[in-house]
Amino acid sequence: MTRYLIIIVLSLLSLNGVAAVQPKGQYIQPNNLFPKVLFTTSLGNFTVELDRMKAPITVDNFLSYVDAKRYENTLFHRLEHDFVLQGGGFTTEMESVEEFPAIVNESGNGLKNDQYTIAMARQYSPHSGTSQFFFNLADNDSLNPGRNWGYTVFGYITEGEDVFEKLEGIETDISPELGWPSFPNKKIIIIKVEILAE
């Protein structure tokens, strides 16, 4: 009997652990098709309007990370001038952000990788997006879907575009920790991302 009680308790603890890390974006402002978030960064603040109408899965995924505060004190770890600024993958201590399961690619939603839009980063596999995202620093037609899967755009900057002008003065090099190129020599920190009231 004791053995069975231990198994039940362990099972409940396991279930509670799983429930605690489940994405919850679909429950955040569920009737708001265009929720807004405020990025507070070491370069300044800017606001992004998300498009749940065109990219519901991607927006809910992003809001899940925001709600879980997993973007707090993280880095923009990739800067390619006139191309993209990428973040959401590493903390300021160069530890990986805890990820939710990968999501379906919604790049065929009609939204384009134009300047000042936000899009999902991913691996070569089209349906491998998790926590990482990027901002388009130019109109990047090469990232849009064609014969192959593209990169899902799910919102755009509505206020604070001037923050991105400060990127021009930041040089990049190979990251000593990651071994990746295009790593900013000056840390660009995402202090926090907040969901704004409707």
UniProtKB/TrEMBL annotation:
> What start and end residues bound the annotated signal peptide?
1-19
Which SUPFAM superfamilies does the entry mention? Cyclophilin-like (SSF50891)
Q: Which family does it belong to?
A: Belongs to the cyclophilin-type PPIase family.
Question: Which segments constitute the PPIase cyclophilin-type domain?
Answer: 33-195
Keyword set for this entry?
Isomerase, Rotamase, Signal
Organism equals: Psychrosphaera aquimarina
Return any one Pfam family short name: Pro_isomerase
Please give the PANTHER family that the UniProt record associates with this protein.
PEPTIDYL-PROLYL CIS-TRANS ISOMERASE CYP38, CHLOROPLASTIC
Q: Does the keyword Oxidoreductase apply?
A: no
Q: What does this protein do?
A: PPIases accelerate the folding of proteins. It catalyzes the cis-trans isomerization of proline imidic peptide bonds in oligopeptides.
- Entry annotated with the keyword Nucleotidyltransferase: no
Q: Which GO terms describe its molecular function?
A: peptidyl-prolyl cis-trans isomerase activity
Q: Which domain of life is it from?
A: Bacteria
- Which reaction(s) does its UniProt entry say it catalyses? [protein]-peptidylproline (omega=180) = [protein]-peptidylproline (omega=0)
Q: What is its EC number?
A: 5.2.1.8
What name does the UniProt record give this protein? Peptidyl-prolyl cis-trans isomerase
Listed InterPro entries = Cyclophilin-like_dom_sf, Cyclophilin-type_PPIase_dom, E_coli_cyclophilin_A-like
